[in-house]
Design a protein that fits this description.
Blueprint lengths: L2 H15 L6 E2 L6 E9 L4 H13 L26 H18 L6 E6 L5 E7 H8 L4 E6 L2 E4 L4 H4 L6 H4 L11 E6 L43 E6 L2 H5 L5 H4 L9 H10 L4 E5 L2 E6 L7 E6 L1 E2 L3 E3 H14 L3 E4 L1 E3 L12 H11 L3 E5 L18 E6 L7 E5 L4 E4 L12 E5 L27 H4 L3 E6 L1 H4 L5 H10 L4 E6 L17 E4 L2 H13 L1 E3 L6 E4 L2 E4 L13 E2 L14 H4 L6 E4 L3 E4 L16 E4 L2 H18 L5 H10 L12 E3 L9 E3 L2 H4 L6 H4 L4 E3 L3 H9 L5 H8 L21 E6 L2 E10 L4 E8 L4 E6 L2 E4 L4 E10 L3 E13 L4 E10 L9
Parallel strand pairs: 7-11, 7-14, 8-11, 14-16, 16-17, 17-28, 20-21, 21-22, 22-23, 27-31, 34-41
Antiparallel strand pairs: 1-2, 2-4, 2-5, 3-4, 6-13, 6-15, 9-10, 12-13, 18-19, 18-26, 20-26, 24-25, 29-30, 31-32, 33-35, 35-39, 36-38, 36-40, 37-39, 40-41
The chain binds 2-acetamido-2-deoxy-beta-D-glucopyranose (12 copies).
Main location: secreted
Subcellular location: Secreted
GO molecular function, one term: serine-type endopeptidase activity
C-alpha cells in the first residue's frame, strides 16, 4: 500500500477538519482567530542581497536580473545575506508595526519572513486582519491554507552509471558541492543513506551554504555531518492550531513519517546502500546525485500535513542558507483562490527563490488522471509527474484446478511447488468464536479466534478490506496470526468493497500473496467453496478440498513496458481553463520514475502504518517520488554547468526528454483509476509535459531556452487586472513591465501552449548554444487542425550564440479539444531538441474547408 491512497485519506481528513479557517477561540470577546500571512511593501533582503550572493558564490549567473532599490538602514550597510542581524532587524520592524496597529490587543506573531518576502505570519481575528490590511506599509493579507505531501534500480533505468554520473566524474563525485533543500516531513539522520563516513572519498564542506542544524533530544548534536548539512523544522502555524502532537510529529527535524527520508534519499542518498526489508535483500540503493548535500526544512507532519505559513518560512530559510535546489513533494489541498493560480504565498516565495538563482522542483500532485487535475502551477516552478519504470515484483499462486492467479507481495513462495490445503478464516474458528462476535474475524487479526489444528500446516485465507487501507487492520498482524497458528502461508483475497486499485508490493516474512483483483478473488473463492464438504446439520466444514501453492514475489523482473504515465499523476493544463494565462503554461513539465520506488525510510516512521513500521527502506509510489529524481538530476546539471539559470536547467531537462518507451513505442498514459492498464493511450504533453526524463542527454543539451525573473514578471503583469495583486505579493510595480508584457505562449519556454488559437498566431523563441558549433535543421508535426511553419528551417549556430525561431500557426478547423504537435531541432553533432506544441482551436468565424 502506498502513498497514493494515504494521500486520498489525508485529503478527506483535511477537508473535514483543517480547511476551516478558524481554529482557536479568543477568550476575551469570543471572536475567532486564524493565521494570516501578511506581506509588507518594503523589499525583502534577497532582492538586494541576491545580487551579492551571485557574486560571492561565484557559481551562479551574475546580474541577469534588474536590481531593485532597497533602502537599508545605514547601520546595516555592510551586512551579507548570511548575517542574522538583518533578520532580527526586520523582525523588530514587524513587531513594532503589530504593536502600533493592534495596540493593547491580543495577537500572536508566528514568523517574520525577510529573505524572499518581507512579511510575517500572525494569529489574529478577522477584524484585526482588516486593521492590518488598511495600513500603508502592508501590501497583502492572505489567510493561511493547508498543503499535503503529494531506489535501487532507477539509477540504472535512467542510465546514470554509464551516462550522467560518468560526466560528473562517476558516482564517487556525482552532485558534489551542490546542496538540495527538502521541504518535507524531515529526515532520519541515523540512516546510512545520509552518513558521511567515507574515508576513501571524504565529503567536502559546501562553502556557499550557511544553514544550521537544530539540536533537540530527538535530533541530538552530531546528527548533521558533511552529507546532511542543515536541518530545521517549522511548525508555528500547526502548533497555534492545537493539532501538533509532539509524540508523533517530533518538535525537531526528525522524520516521524518516513516520506521526507524517502524523498531526500531518492535525490541525494549515498551510493551502494544495501536495501534489506523483512529480512530480504532487494539490491543496493543510490540517490540520483549520490554526492550532493542534503539540507532539511521540515514543514510537513505525520498527523495533519502542513500549512502555507510554515512552508513559506521553510522556503525563506532554505534560500537564505544558500541551497542550490529546492525540492517540494507537496501541493496545496485545493486550487488557490484569486485571479490566477500563481498568486499564492508559496508560489510567490518560490518566484523570489528563482530570482536568487535557485532551481525549484515540485510534484505535480497525485490528483490524476482527469484533465486539469494539476496541483502545481507556475512557469518558474519545474513540475514533475510520475511514470513507471521497468522493474516489477510479481507474485502468483497456482490452484489445484491448474488455474494461475496473479497477485502482489514481496514474499517467499511455499516449498517446492508443493500444494497446500486452503482454509478460509471463517471456516477455521474455534468453538469460542463466531463470526457474529467479531465481524472482522476474516481479517485474521487475532489468533485466539482460530482453531490451531485446522490452520496448522495449511494456507490461511484472509480478507483484505478497506480497514487495511485505513491502517485499522494490518498485513503484519495477519502474518503474526498465521505464524501463531503454524500456518505455512497467507492468501489475502480482495474484499469486494475495495475497488481495484494498485497495491504496492508489501514485504512479508513468510509465504504470502495479495490477490489484488476482485475478479481473481472471486474465482479463488468459487474454487474454494466448490471444493468444500459441509455437514448438513452442524454446518461445519468436514473436508477442505481446495489446494494451492504460492510462487513467491521476491524476484524482480525487468520486462515491463516502461515508462508509462501513472493514473494518479496529475494532468494539465492548469485548472484555470477559463483563464488562458494559466492554461497556456505547459504542466506538467516532465515525468520521471515515481512508481514502486525503493528508498530510505525513517526507523520511527509511521506513515503507511500497515507494514513499514520499523523498516529502514520502503517502496513508495507517487509524484512525491518523481520530483526528487529530477531534483537529483538537476544537481548533476548544476555541477556540470554552474552558471546555468533555473530556466536553463529546466530547459536542459525538458528539450532532451524521451518520447518512447523501452519497446520503442510511444510512452503510454494510464487514464483510469480502476484497471489502469486496460485504459491507456499514448501520452500527450498534458500527461507527460516534454516527455520522460533522459539523464544522459539532459547533461548535454546543446541548445537552451532561457528566461529570467523579469520575463516572469512581464508574464504576471500581462494578466488582466493583475497589477494590484502583483504589487501586493511582490512589491513590484507593473508599470515597469507594461512595455514588455507577454502572454503564456510568448514566454521563452521550451514548449508552446495556446489555449485559444483564433485564426492565426506567431510566437517566437530565442535559443542559446551551450555546446559547440552546430548546424540544425528544423522539423515539425502540426497539431490536428493547424497549419504550421517554422522559420528558419536550417541554421548554423556558433558556441555561445543565440538564434530566434519564429513559429507561425493558422487554424484550419474549429475544434474545442486540445490537439498536439511537436517541433524538433536536429543538430549535425547529435543534439535533438524537442518542443511540444499544444493548441485548442477556437475560431469565431465560419471557415469554408476546401
Ligand atoms: C564594510 O564597510 C567598510 C566601510 O564602510 C568598507 O571599508 C569595507 O570594505 C566594507 N566591507 C565589505 C565586505 O563590503
Ligand atoms: C492588496 O492589498 C490591499 C491592502 O492589504 C487590499 O486592500 C487589496 O484588496 C489587495 N488587492 C488585491 C487585488 O488583493
Ligand atoms: C566508519 O566506517 C568504518 C569502516 O567502514 C567503520 O569501522 C566505522 O565504525 C564507521 N564510523 C562511524 C562513526 O560510523
Ligand atoms: C499524540 O499521539 C500519541 C501517540 O500516537 C497518542 O497516544 C496521543 O493520544 C496523541 N495526543 C493527542 C493530544 O492527540
Ligand atoms: C552492495 O553493497 C554492499 C555493501 O555496501 C557490497 O558489499 C555489495 O557488493 C554491493 N552489491 C552490489 C550488487 O553492488
Ligand atoms: C493439471 O495439469 C497437470 C499437467 O500439466 C495434469 O497432470 C493435471 O491432471 C491437471 N489437473 C487438473 C485438475 O486439470
Ligand atoms: C475457549 O475459552 C475458554 C475459556 O475462556 C478457554 O479456556 C479455552 O482454551 C478456549 N478454547 C479455545 C479453543 O481457544
Ligand atoms: C537518452 O539520451 C541518450 C543520449 O542522447 C540516447 O542515447 C538514449 O537513447 C536516450 N534514451 C532514451 C530512452 O531515449
Ligand atoms: C516604455 O516605453 C517608453 C516609450 O517606448 C519609454 O519611454 C519608457 O522608458 C519605457 N519604460 C520602461 C520601463 O522600459
Ligand atoms: C477572432 O479574431 C477575429 C478577427 O481577428 C475577431 O473578430 C474575433 O473577435 C476573435 N474572436 C475571439 C473569440 O477572440
Ligand atoms: C496562414 O494564413 C496566411 C493568410 O492566409 C498565409 O499567408 C500563411 O502562409 C499561413 N501560414 C501558415 C503557417 O499556414
Ligand atoms: C456558422 O454557420 C452556422 C451554420 O453553418 C450558422 O448557424 C452560424 O450562425 C454561423 N456563425 C457565424 C458566426 O457566422
Amino acid at each position: 500500500m502506498g502513498r497514493i491512497y494515504w494521500a486520498h485519506i489525508v485529503f478527506l481528513f483535511c477537508l473535514g477538519i483543517f480547511l476551516l479557517p478558524s481554529s482557536c477561540q479568543d477568550d476575551s470577546d469570543g471572536a475567532t482567530t486564524a493565521v494570516y500571512i501578511v506581506t509588507l511593501r518594503q523589499t525583502p533582503s534577497s532582492h538586494y542581497y541576491g545580487e551579492l550572493r551571485r557574486v560571492s558564490n561565484g557559481r551562479s549567473k551574475p546580474g541577469a536580473f534588474g536590481r531593485t532599490r532597497f533602502h537599508k538602514p545605514s547601520t546595516f550597510r555592510n551586512i551579507t545575506r548570511t548575517d542574522r542581524r538583518y533578520g532580527s532587524y526586520i523582525a523588530r520592524v514587524h513587531d513594532s508595526l503589530l504593536k502600533k496597529v493592534l495596540k493593547g490587543e491580543k495577537y500572536l506573531k508566528l514568523y517574520s519572513y525577510h529573505y524572499l518576502i518581507n512579511g510575517f505570519a500572525v494569529l489574529v481575528t478577522q477584524q484585526q486582519a482588516e486593521k492590518l490590511s488598511r495600513r500603508g506599509e502592508v501590501s497583502n493579507v492572505v489567510l493561511d491554507f493547508s498543503v499535503r505531501t503529494a531506489t535501487t534500480h532507477t539509477p540504472q533505468f535512467l542510465g546514470l552509471p554509464q551516462g550522467a554520473w560518468s560526466q560528473d566524474g562517476g558516482f564517487e563525485t556525482a552532485g558534489e558541492g551542490i546542496v538540495i533543500g527538502f521541504v518535507d516531513t524531515g529526515i532520519d539522520p541515523t540512516h546510512p543513506s545520509f552518513g558521511d563516513n567515507n574515508s576513501e572519498h571524504p565529503y567536502p564542506v559546501p562553502a556557499h551554504f550557511s544553514g544550521i542544524c537544530e539540536v533537540t533530544p530527538d535530533f541530538p548534536s552530531g546528527s548533521c555531518n558533511r552529507k546532511l548539512v542543515g536541518a530545521r523544522h517549522f511548525a508555528a502555524s500547526a502548533i497555534t492550531r492545537g493539532i501538533f502532537n509532539s509524540s508523533k510529529d517530533y518538535a525537531s527535524p526528525f522524520d516521524g513519517d518516513g516520506h521526507g527520508t524517502h524523498t531526500a534519499a531518492v535525490a541525494a542518498g549515498n551510493h551502494g546502500i544495501p536495501v534489506v526489508v523483512s529480512g530480504h535483500h532487494f539490491g543496493n540503493a543510490s540517490g540520483m546525485a549520490p554526492r550532493s548535500h542534503v539540507a532539511v526544512y521540515k514543514a510537513l507532519y505525520k498527523s495533519f500535513g502542513g500549512f502555507a505559513a510554515d512552508v513559506v518560512a521553510a522556503i525563506d530559510q532554505a534560500a537564505q542558507d544558500g541551497v542550490d535546489i529546492i525540492s517540494l513533494s507537496i501541493t496545496p489541498n485545493r486550487r488557490p483562490p484569486g485571479i490566477a493560480t500563481f498568486f499564492n504565498p508559496i508560489d510567490m516565495s518560490l518566484l523570489s527563490a528563482v530570482k536568487a538563482g535557485i532551481f525549484v522542483v515540485q510534484a505535480a500532485g497525485n490528483t490524476g488522471p482527469s484533465p486539469m487535475s494539476m496541483s502545481s502551477f507556475s512557469p518558474w516552478i519545474y513540475t514533475v509527474g510520475a511514470a513507471s519504470h521497468d522493474r516489477s515484483y510479481s507474485n502468483s499462486m497456482v490452484l489445484g484446478n491448474n488455474v494461475t492467479i496473479p497477485g502482489v507481495g514481496l514474499a517467499p513462495g511455499t516449498d517446492d511447488n508443493q500444494m497446500y490445503k486452503l482454509v478460509h478464516a471463517h471456516d477455521a474458528l474455534n468453538n469460542n468464536s463466531t463470526a457474529a462476535d467479531d465481524m472482522y474475524v476474516n481479517e485474521c487479526q487475532d489468533a485466539s479466534n482460530f482453531d490451531h489444528d485446522l490452520v496448522k500446516g495449511n494456507l490461511l485465507m484472509c480478507s483484505y478490506s478497506i480497514r487495511f487501507v485505513l491502517g485499522l487492520s494490518t498485513i503484519k498482524q495477519a502474518l503474526e496470526t498465521a505464524k501463531n497458528l503454524s500456518s505455512v502461508g497467507v492468501v489475502f483475497y480482495m474484499d469486494p468493497f475495495v475497488i481495484g486499485f494498485q497495491l504496492n508490493p508489501v514485504p512479508m516474512k513468510m509465504p504470502g500473496i495479495i490477490i489484488a483483483s476482485t475478479n481473481d478473488s472471486k474465482s479463488l473463492l468459487q474454487y474454494y467453496n466448490s471444493s468444500l464438504e459441509i455437514d448438513g446439520t452442524s454446518k461445519r466444514v468436514t473436508k477442505f478440498g481446495a489446494v494451492a501453492t504460492i510462487c513467491g514475489g521476491l524476484k524482480a523482473n525487468y520486462s515491463n513496458a516502461a515508462p508509462k504515465v501513472m493514473y494518479y499523476s496529475a494532468r494539465g493544463p492548469d485548472p484555470g481553463d477559463s483563464l488562458p494565462h494559466e492554461a497556456e503554461i505547459l504542466k506538467p513539465n516532465l515525468v520521471a520514475p515515481g512508481n514502486f520506488i525503493w528508498a530510505a525510510w525513517s526507523s520511527l516512521g509511521t506513515d503507511s502504518v500497515e507494514f513499514l513500521a520499523g523498516e529502514n527502506f520502503a517502496m513508495m509510489s507517487g509524484t512525491s517520488m518523481a520530483a526528487p529524481h529530477v531534483a537529483g538530476l538537476a544537481a548533476l546539471i548544476k555541477q556540470k554547468f554552474p552558471n546555468f539559470s533555473p530556466a536553463a536547467i529546466a530547459s536542459a531537462l525538458s528539450t532532451t526528454a524521451s518520447l518512447y518507451d523501452n519497446n520503442g513505442g510511444p510512452i503510454m498514459a494510464q487514464r483510469s483509476y480502476a484497471s489502469p492498464d486496460l485504459n491507456q493511450s499514448p501520452a500527450t504533453p498534458f500527461d507527460m509535459g516534454s516527455g520522460f526524463v533522459n539523464a544522459t542527454s539532459a547533461l548535454n543539451p546543446g541548445l537552451i531556452f532561457d528566461s529570467s525573473y523579469d520575463d516572469y514578471m512581464s508574464f504576471l503583469c500581462g494578466i488582466n487586472g493583475s497589477a494590484p495583486v502583483v504589487l501586493n505579493f511582490t512589491g513590484q510595480n507593473c508599470n515597469l513591465y507594461y512595455n514588455s508584457t507577454v502572454n503564456g505562449p510568448d514566454l521563452n519556454l521550451p514548449s508552446i501552449t495556446i489555449a485559444k488559437l483564433n485564426q492565426t498566431r506567431v510566437v517566437q523563441r530565442t535559443i542559446q548554444n551551450v555546446g559547440g558549433n552546430e548546424s540544425f535543421s528544423v522539423g515539425w508535426s502540426a497539431p490536428y487542425g493547424v497549419s504550421l511553419k517554422v522559420s528558419p528551417t536550417h541554421f548554423y549556430i556558433g558556441s555561445g550564440e543565440k538564434q530566434v525561431l519564429s513559429v507561425f500557426l493558422n487554424a484550419t478547423i474549429n475544434n474545442s479539444v486540445a490537439s498536439f504537435g511537436r517541433i524538433g531541432l536536429f543538430g549535425n553533432q547529435g543534439h535533438i531538441i524537442n518542443i511540444p506544441l499544444s493548441v485548442i482551436l477556437k475560431i469565431s468565424l465560419n471557415l469554408t474547408v476546401s
